[in-house]
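ESCALATION

Customer reports they have been waiting on this structure for their group meeting. Please prioritize. Original submission:
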Amino acid sequence: MEKNPKIVIIGAGAAGLAAAVRLKQKCFDNIVILEAEDHLGGRINSIKFGDSYVDLGAQWCHGQENNIVYELVNDLDLLAPSYNTYTDHIFCQDGNKLAKKTFDILLNVAHDVLRSGDVYRNQDKSFGDSFEEIFRYKLEQDPKRHVVMSYVDDFISWFHSFLLCYKAAPNWFDISVTNKEYEKCPGYPLLHWKGKGFNIFLDVLLDGKSWMEGIFGFYVIDENPCVLLGWLTGPGAVEIEKLASEQVMDACLYILEQFVGCTCKVPSPQCAIVSKWNTNPNFLGTWSYRSMDTQKLQTCALHLAEPIKKRHKNILLFAGEATHPYYFSTVHGAVESGFREADRIASTYSVEPKRKIIIVGGGIAGISAALTLLNHGVQDFVILEADKNLGGRIKTIYHEGKPLEMGAQWIHGSGNTIYQIAKNHNLILPEQSHEGTGVYVRNDGCIFDEDLVKWVDFRVGKILEECEHFTDTLEHPKSVGHYLKSRFSENLKDIDENCDKGKYLDLLDWHLRFQNIDNSCDDLQFVSAKEWGKYYCPDLNGQEHINLMNGYQSLIDVLVKKIDPTKIHLQTTVEKIKWKDNNNSVTVTSTTGKTYCCDHVLVTCSLGVLKRDHATMFDPPLPFNMRSSIDAMGFDSLGKVYLVFEKKWWDVEGFQLIWTKDAVMEGLKGWVKHISGMDSVYNHPNVLVVWVGGRGVALMESLPAELLGTHCVDLLRVFLKKRDIPYPIKVIRSCWLSNRRVGGGYSYSTPENDDSNKDRSQLLKAALEGDIPRILLAGEAVHLTYFSTVHGAFESGRSQTEKLLNYLKAYNNVCPKQINI
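Update from on-call: job pushed to the front of the queue and completed.
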């Protein structure tokens, strides 16, 4: 095949330039870029305006994690958080200022509608129809609704315009509920550009009276407080582009005087500049969104990204923000799509040899599978890992030269392979960690008596032990959560009538939050009571939380040394596995278009990825019982926030946070109520780790790390009644839920798994073509008793691989070979 093909890139926007850069990196130099405009950048267009630069197109860098744009400029000091908001000052049309508390009630309900996901469930309605219906319903349930009912219609009109600023649609009745495909990058959502490039200013206004419906607010430019940015959406955004700047200035002045003239004197603007993306024939708009036609036609970005082939060769490829399946409408989405198509071209000119086995996923299960193959003399395999390094949910970072675990925290017990490997390589620390220690303190400042804490802890432990006996019974409770609450209420009958039962119930609430974190679930009511007793950790002997001297990464390093680096392909995300009727082979295709052929595939990615992608990843679909088990099993998340202080200010092992039933969250953010406590961290005297569970994890991951630190200290100040607690100097947090390569924490069994056709055992079976095991699964979710643990994932990788080896031995006479790991 031709080694240096001539490549023409049409368009020099973010996607086109990214594709060219990536192709040059891969030594393709016969490249021509054709651009219709007189500048590079496409919808990135920064110009000098007054004493600063303004941007007529792309405005911000959205998010810090999994954002290719942020990663490319992170070390160059080009970005800063934008602290201006649209909600500081809200004015009504009559010139009166709307009270912030009133507006916040409406805004919180609106955000709750979006967060709940309810708006996306009715596929027959548009986004706008669904939102308005659910918003009004939720508002009716709000106890503070009497304060805001007279502003509902005005707020919906404003929020409509506000949402259109993100969706770029004529109105929200044209937006499909499948627009949920869009995903945010974790971290600060609005990072503005300092200095000259990709700066900030977009002013869209309309002359006449109709502009009043399109403009939803003005906002101060971060680096030029004398410049206001007005946002215009809907049909008016097209009409304003035809107006002279003088007409735009007059319209702006009229609006500002109409709304804020009663409060302050508004001077005449000196000049104005208007973006013109809609009337520019080279763009004809701003960015893509998922319309109702998208929903009706059942189409998506992947269809647009599909190359046109000639004689089985890709000859016409498509990139741009509109072709990205979940980062559409962003610059980082455009850049990633350019890289994707460049990689697709490059992969066309390099053909991978057929392998005996492909291991999908380089976490501990994938590593274990590879070592098992090597132990038995099988060299013909490759690991495909989506991340930049191996380890999966094992991720150790180092602060001041000492480990902090972002993922798996401890080895649980000494009776497992992981402990033995770590012990053989002198990786074990003699000191152990403990959970739920220190002071139990309530939001009103009440410190709980140690005897009371122990009494409740003992009773809760006994009730959960009772749950273990339901495994082999026909009759069983609805869920662990239901049983725990019911039995605890019965236990309360044993206490003295003069005791404050409220304290006992407050401690039960803490245990429920603690168990949500321990089981990586949103609520214990989703956890099966029948399956509860199947979890088992052998030979704990009081060794429940064993620390590794240099962190879990030291264990990964020991194991990976045994694997030839050429057998490891990093940053290779698997998109499709075709495993039947395929010329006696399995074809594995990555998101870059690179294709691998093999006889068998061992899939070790997380249950979160399988739940999200199994319907599109496997062709044909996995066997019915396998799919049913995947869909039925639970996989939510937990989170950690490390607070690094300048010096240690506490003298206890930790703070366990208890809430009264009627606690008021005044001044505190909602996610903090999902915190169980803040514990000291071994070998880090000035660090506290904050444990977050349930629905608070998604909220936590959506906020900037620095803001999390502020929220946590504000919370401690309320509980400890100390206003002098310092803010942390550094905040480090996990992001497993929003990480597309994981999608959560670890698995648990739900009441749906009580059906033997949907239980965990279905995942241990192979997907067969005839009698050939084409697909096997492995990972912590694929172990019947050690699920949710590192040793469970390791054992699963080994045992599932041994099943495949038994087949290979029977048909290929594979000889055992031992490698000491």
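Sent to customer with the following note: The longest strand covers residues 684-693.
Escalation resolved.
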